[in-house]
Amino acid sequence: MARLAEDPDEGVRYTVALRADLTEEQRAAIRVDVDPSDRSHTLAWVADRHEDPEAMRVLAGSSHVLVRRSVARARRLPPDVVRRLAWDTDRVVQLFLAESCEDAPAEMLLRVWTWWTGSLSSPGRPRTHPNFPREGLLRFADDPHGRMRRLALDDPGSTPELAARFAGDRDPEVRRRAAEDPRLPVADAIRLTEDPVGSVRAAVLRHGPLPAAVLAAALLDRETARDAARNPGIPPHVVRAMAARCVTFAASVQGA
Question: How many of the other CB atoms lie within 10 Å of CB of 14?
Answer without folding.
Answer: 17
